[in-house]
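2 proteins. here.
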Amino acid sequence: MSKIMKQTLADMANRLGPLPDRFIFGEGIDWSSPLAETHVYVELPFWLMMPAGPVEVKWSGVAFTVNVCPPWMEVFARHVTDSRASCVHEGLLRPDYQPPPEIVAALTRAQVSSLSRPCKTVLSLTARAHTDAFRGRTNAEPPRAAGGTGRVPRP
């Protein structure tokens, strides 16, 4: 294990306590919290080659709508990450996109540049999710609780 990884793990242990001996996906969510409608966005690893718009899907006897979004983009600060932890904007592809002044000011203060990335095909669908999954995270929670951005983009 590298020195950097050892130091990172030691810093986390000092801040959060010892590493857990196990982890179960979703164990930090209150599964009794109410369900709320949410929009789920997913980028396909390829271009679907079809126009934007709704597509009616039937699966296991249930009919629902999947929306093929118009061309989409993401803007990252400092590094492009698969986790999207460094994503500062996502939405319709606009070659002339300029971050809002508060984002520009934060990037300037941190001496960080941004990079926009056009996405492949993005789909959106409506789902129901436990509201606790979108709660504000505390510093006492393990870093894995910060995986989501908490932002809900709109096409």
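next one coming up
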Amino acid sequence: MQKEYITTNVRLPRGIHKELKYRALKEDRSLGALIREYIERCIKITLPVKRKVDYSRDPIWSLPKLARDLGDKNLSSKVDKIVYGV
């Protein structure tokens, strides 16, 4: 699958540009490829991984089910039984 590229201009300090060109030459790569790789690595390191949150395991979501199972819509009268099993 071919990637779609967008051309952009970035101003770099002379020393950084020189170092990047040196590394690209040393690795026999284009300067653009080197910069893209560095940016991709940086993004993967700094961006948090998005995870789907499963709220079904959160005890608060089980309270309505507990109320139905206990045959009472008022859980306050069953707190000790729910929390402590007494």
